Amino acid sequence: MERVIELSEYDIDYGAMQEQFKDLTTLAAKIAGTEVSLVNLIDSYTSWTIARHGLPVEQLPREETVCQYTISGDDNFEITNLTEDDRFKNKSYVSGAPNLKYYFGVPLRTANGNNLGALCLMDAETRQLSPEKIEMLKIIAGEIVNRLQVYKTLQELKQNANEALESKKRVAHDIRGPVGGIIGLARVISEQGNENNMEEVLEFINLIYKSGNSILELADEILSNDLPTSAKALGANEYNQLMLKDKLEKLYAPQALNKGIHLTITTDSGTEAVPFSKNKLLQIIGNIISNAIKFTPRGGGVSVSFGLQLGTNQNTLLFTVADNGVGMQPEKIASILSGEGETTHGTAGEQGYGFGLSLVKHLIDSLKGSLDITSTPGSGSVFSVKIPQGKVS
């Protein structure tokens, strides 16, 4: 659980990292002398190949990978002949093209001691790596982790910089109005001199009071970092429903297609262009979608729908994930909502790891959101999520 929580903190778009790591996958393949080199990050359900050399794979169910064993250990994991290992000999990439035989994996370990994934080397021929080559591969794995940390840090700095810039613009724009009003009213009182009557002076003072109070409210808002959202443009740390739909289709349609599940994602046409924070959304929605696919039999369907409730003080992102799968008993729903995880297997025998939905609950709680689950055994489940967004102008 700690491992997948730390991975979620990187908030990675798994489909947009190839350029940042392709030099390292190429170098690793050259050092090892293998045809294939992959950088895999493994979440609750899926192994995401964020960089690849020699094999055009983008994702695999976690239980189908060799790397699931690499992240479970403290050191390298090597299989000299996959065709002779009962765990792997019937995997599609071993029994069929590209007929891989050799595997060598190095865990991608963070400073906190969690393995986010693996640098894996694979080949159609068996081989033996020298200690020198293994040490070089460990160095490359360390550099991959360093780059992931740099990516995370840069994202945080970018968000802070954007917030500071927006705050500066708002101060210049929003304060100009009330300050100008105060100066103007004071000038009127001064120019009228003795001609002012008490009622007019009191009215002017009341207006000055209101203008000054609006500045104080603005200052409180800025100091609390509660910045408004805008529907005009997407920032570096924002999605709208259309962009999020596109991301989810690219990431999870292959999983659905592989199992014969019909995945549909719909947006609210009235608010689909309004920005909202992308913080942790791919991890939250992605895990729910993967869970729905896992527990829906072949030929079934998973539907995702989005909406954005616009409010005076804040917006609220709403989304539901519905399936017509096996459903859940009330006690299972209660365990999920309490943040507990249980290992279960999917309708096609997919292996369960017991913390996918626990992670979802943890992340939703961290964003001060809410999760509601309705389900009927044998008829499917509906996950409904609400996540508050920043203030709107």
UniProtKB/TrEMBL annotation:
Presence of keyword Phosphoprotein: yes
UniProt feature coiled coil, ranges: none
Entry keyword set: Kinase, Phosphoprotein, Transferase
Domain of life: Bacteria
A Gene Ontology molecular function term of the record: kinase activity
EC numbers on record: 2.7.13.3
InterPro entries to which the protein is assigned, alphabetical: GAF-like_dom_sf, HATPase_C_sf, HATPase_dom, His_kinase_dom, HisK_dim/P_dom, HisK_dim/P_sf, Sig_transdc_His_kin-like_C
Keyword Protein transport on entry: no
Pfam family membership, one: HATPase_c
Residue ranges of the TM segments: none
Domain Histidine kinase intervals: 170-391
Protein name per UniProt: histidine kinase
